[in-house]
Design a protein that fits this description.
The protein has helices at residues 3-14, 18-22, 42-55, 123-131, and strands at residues 25-32, 38-40, 56-67, 73-84, 98-110, 113-120. By secondary structure, it is an alpha+beta fold. It has a six-stranded mixed β-sheet. It starts with a helix and ends with a helix. The relative contact order is 0.20.
C-alpha cells in the first residue's frame, strides 16, 4: 500500500463514494469505531458508512498522512468539518448543527489494501459543539 492509497481513501470519503472507499479495503477489514467496538468485514464497513451518511455530512480537510517504510502501518491526522443532519441514537437532537473536530486515524495495511481502520476524535468536544448549536 502506498501513501496514495490513503489519499484515495479520503478523496473517496469527501466525494461520498462508498464504493471507492470499500474497494481499498480487505474483505476482512477491522474497523475500530471511535470510542466504540470493532466491526469486521467490508460489508459491515459499508453499512457503517451508509448509517453515518444518514446522520452526518462530513468533509476531511487539512489531511496529513504517512505510511511506514515497510508499508504495513499508516496514520492520518485531519480536520473533519461536518453537519449533523438527523438525530443519531443516544446523541443530542440534530438540528443541522455544524462542527469542526481534529481526528486521528490509524491503519494496518496488507497486500496493497487497508486491513484495519481505527479512528479517534474527542466525542465530548463533538457533543458540546452540537449541544451549543454548532
Amino acid at each position: 500500500m502506498s501513501l496514495g492509497t490513503l489519499h484515495a481513501y479520503y478523496a473517496a470519503f469527501n466525494a461520498r463514494d462508498w464504493d471507492g472507499m470499500c474497494v481499498l479495503l480487505t474483505e476482512d477489514v477491522a474497523h475500530d469505531v471511535n470510542q466504540g467496538g470493532r466491526e469486521v468485514g467490508r460489508e459491515a464497513f459499508r453499512a457503517f458508512l451508509e448509517r453515518m451518511a444518514r446522520h452526518y455530512r462530513e468533509r476531511v480537510e487539512d489531511l496529513v498522512a504517512m505510511v511506514t517504510p515497510d508499508q504495513v502501518r499508516g496514520a492520518a491526522e485531519f480536520t473533519i468539518r461536518g453537519e449533523y443532519l438527523a438525530t443519531d441514537e443516544g446523541l443530542p437532537e440534530a438540528r443541522g448543527q455544524a462542527y469542526v473536530l481534529p481526528v486521528g486515524a490509524f491503519f494496518e495495511l496488507r497486500e496493497g489494501r487497508i486491513a484495519r481502520v481505527t479512528n479517534f476524535y474527542n466525542l465530548k468536544d463533538w457533543v458540546a459543539q452540537v449541544s451549543a448549536g454548532g
